[in-house]
Every structure is written in structure tokens, then in C-alpha cells.
Amino acid sequence: MSTIKVETSPIPGQKPGTSGLRKKTHVFMGPHFLENYVQSIFDGIGGVVGKTLVVGGDGRYFNERAIQVILRMMAANGAARAIVGQSGILSTPAASHLIRKRGTDGGLILSASHNPGGPDEDFGLKYNGPNGGPASEGVTNRIYARTTEITSYMISEAQDIDLGTIGTETLGHMTIEVIDPVTDYAALMEELFDFDAIKALLSSGFSLRFDAMHAVTGPYAKAILEETLGAAPGSVVNGTPLPDFGGGHPDPNPIWAKDLMDLMMSPDAPDFGAASDGDGDRNMIVGKGCYITPSDSLAVLAANAHLAPAYKDGLAGVARSMPTSAAVDRVAEKMGIDVFETPTGWKFFGTLLDAGRATLCGEESAGTGSNHVREKDGLWAVLLWLNVLAETKQSVARLMSDHWARYGRNYYSRHDYEAVDSDMANGLVDSMRARLGDMAGQTAGGLKITGADEFSYTDPVDGSVSKNQGIRIYFEGGGRAVFRLSGTGTEGATIRVYLERLEIDPAGMDRDPQEALGPIIAAAEELSRVRSETGREGPDVIT
Ligand code: VG1
Ligand code: CO
Questions:
Q1: Would the CB of 282 count as within 6 Å of ligand 1?
Q2: Is the pLDDT of residue 324 over 80?
Q3: What is this structure's pTM?
């Protein structure tokens, strides 16, 4: 093997967003694009000489090609070892677990998560640190800084590595271990949950459907749900990872997992439905005729986690991203534990989890997880739900309605306006920012505004500060509207409007969320003019 140094120059636009760098696949495949970014990661983390990294991705188009390049660059940069999922496959939570279990120096995860895949769609890459979690802002800032000053990268000239066969290979001085992507993760799940109780539930006639959306969780779900826990064969659908996810968005929400939703709302619905996203870190939970919003799911899991072995001693604390509803806060309050409100993106939970201050974390975007890894974890959430259902012997709908009766219901919805002109989107946010100081005391949509600010976060563990994390407007009676721009898109801007209202009247628990949130929706429009400015009749996606 010979190592070569390739001259290059900075490529604009390599700034990582909410979760790593995401671009159109053809951009990632362009000359030097991937190589520049990988070298900048290596430089940004102080080089990889003698280091071990986990490498794997969600199987989307360009996954394996990109891994071959990464391995050649690792070898050329002096890395000691790469641990790679067979065929380049590793779900994001499985990669996080491997980094921790094997005590590596971190890992590279290839995914654009819930974004569609294929030559004309999206690709992504992110670095996770030795704790298994997404790099902190400090690290991503250093990586980004390197992308703006890079002049060369190192790469080996070598044949492709056989990633299809489990075993050990070498590339120069570097060892490459190709491992089964499922084994370690499945063993971890078995440690956390009462598999016997779940087996008993599934053999008692309880039926489920898990929609892997042609993405990475297929092999994991088949092995764990069907082969180990005894769910009926065929319970896992769309279980073979495809490079283009079968043409859909691998995003587990009522829009993109419509087939599952239709089934769950029909007379033939199984007892439990779930779906996960491209890289396996998101989850959607649906009962018979009953969709569970991710914010509610986090609250229900926090209230019941002690029913699973891993959490039997209770929770140290919980954390949620700022736009996530306060449903979990109400649980934490009753339990007398801390609740932390962080900016959007899993990287902000890392310090709290590492410090043992939070056990469960969640985001409104279908992300839930715990201290077992440092990423959100789709199948973990499904298994925790099943463990809770096995213990309580209740239906999903009943568990949810009992929860609302006890804690109140935080009606919640997110409205997304996609592919908006970036200048227009920024202008909209700037305009609201300029008016924030005067909003308190005014009325909008007939609701009195009690407070308005822009979220700034000071990490309670390491003191780092993250500014401009979303505009928050609070209304009389506990309502709230939040506005922020997405940091994961690859085309124009996506405006996210998060809407919430607390209901404690027992007679008001069964309303349609869009209707129950009507006044907040009207107030949000009056304050932002997002519909009139973008010329749209309504959001592109409602979750
Ligand atoms: C979105 C979600 C955020 C999530 C992120 C990554 O970010 O809102 O909650 O952490 O995606 O999820 P944004 O900036 O587009 O709102 V995933 O499953 O893409 O790793
Ligand atoms: Co994801």
C-alpha cells in the first residue's frame, strides 16, 4: 500500500448542522468533497494516529463507496483499527453502543437520517466522540474551521476492502474488523429489558407491526422482535435496507409512514404499531386507533420506565429539547426529579447523560433514548413500550388516556414549511426577533402574550453557551409557539413552527389536536405571517 498526499483547497458549505454534515448525494460525490471533510474531521479531533474508530452507515446510496474512501484515509492518516459493520451497515444507536463497548476513540456515521436517499437525494456524515455521542459544538466548530483552511489530504492507494464478509483484514498498518452489525446491539437490549415478559406478551396473542421503512432497522428488528421475542413472522415490514429506501422518506411520522397509520386506524389494526427512520434512531409509536405524539411518548416512558429492569431504581432526571412539549416536565415534577431543557439535537444531551444527571431524553421529532447509549434509539423505545405494556397489561390507548387523566394533556403539533427561500425564512425569523421585546402584554389571535424570548442555553455541566436556538412565545393559560429553522435540510430552508397548549380539564382530553390548538395556530400565524409570506395555504408536513 502506498500513501499519497493530495493537494486540495477549501470547499464552501462544509459546516455541520443539527446532526453532522448533510448535502445532496451528488455534492458529497463531487471532487474532493468527502475527502476534504473526512480529513477535516481527523484534523479537528487532533489526528487519528494510533486511534480506533467505528465506521458504519444506514445503507443509503454511496454508503459503501464512502466507507472505502474513509478506510483508505484512516490508514493513510495512521489509524490503528477500524471496526466496520458488515456491508457498511450500522444503525446510529448501534454505532454509539459499539464506540462505548469497545472503548474506541469515536466513530464515523454515514447517514442523512430521515432524509430520502439516492443519487438525487441526500447523504450525510458525522463524527461521534469516545462517549458514543455526536460531537459537541466545540468539536464541530473545530472541524468546520479546518474545512475552511484545508490544503491537502492523505489517502492510501489500495484495493477495496471486502466488507461483505465478517472477519479481519489489514490495510497497510491498519486492522479492519468487519463485524455483525446486530449482535452487540441485540445483547444490550436483552440486558435492559425483560425479554421473558415481552415474549409472554407476544405469545398471548398480542400483535404488532414494525415498519422499518426499507431503512437500517430491518435486520435489527427482524432479529430482535421476530427471531428472539417471537413476534409473528411478517410483523416486521419493509425490512430490507434499500439504497433509496424504496423511494420514500424514511421518516417515521404520520405522513411518511402512512401505510402503517392507515393500518393502525383500520379495524384490522394489530395491538401495537411502530416505525423507525433511515438510521434507526427515531421511533413512531401507534396503538390501535391511537397515534402517540413523540412528546407524549417521552412522558409515558418517563412515568413507566421503572417497570423495565434497566430503570427499576428510577430516573436520575429527564431532559427534552426546548421545542418538545412540557408533558415530561409534569411527570418529572410529580416524581420530584430534575428536567432539563436543551437546544434541538442529540449532541446537547451528552453532557447530562455522561454526568449522570439525566437518564431519559427525548425530542418532539420522534427521538427518545436513555443513558444506555449516547444517541436516540428507535428500537430501544419500541422495546421499552413493549416492556411497559407487558407489565401493565393495558392497551396503548388506555395507557395514554390514564396518563392524561393523571398529568393533564399537552396538546401538541409541529407545522413544517419546507423548501422555503433561505432569505425569506431568515427574514421572517429576524422580523420576529426584532419584535420580541414588545410582545409581552400584547394579544395575538385573541390570546394574551405572557412572554417572548429567543432561547439561549448554558450547559449546566460544562458551562458552554449556545445562542439563537429558537424563538419562544408564551400565551396565557400555558400555551406556547416556538419558531426555528431546520438544521438538517439540504434544499432552501425549512421553517418549523411548534405549537402547544396544556389541558387539565378531564372533559377536554379527546379533542383533535389541530382543533384544540386552533387559537395558538392563529396566534402563531398573526405573529410570524409564515403562511402569507411564503404564499402557502398551510404547512407541508404536520406532525
Ligand atoms: C431535526 C429534528 C431534531 C433532530 C435532528 C436529527 O433537526 O428537529 O430534533 O435531533 O433532526 O435527527 P432540525 O434541525 O432539522 O430541526 V435525525 O434522526 O436526522 O439524526
Ligand atoms: Co435519524
A1: yes
A2: yes
A3: 0.94
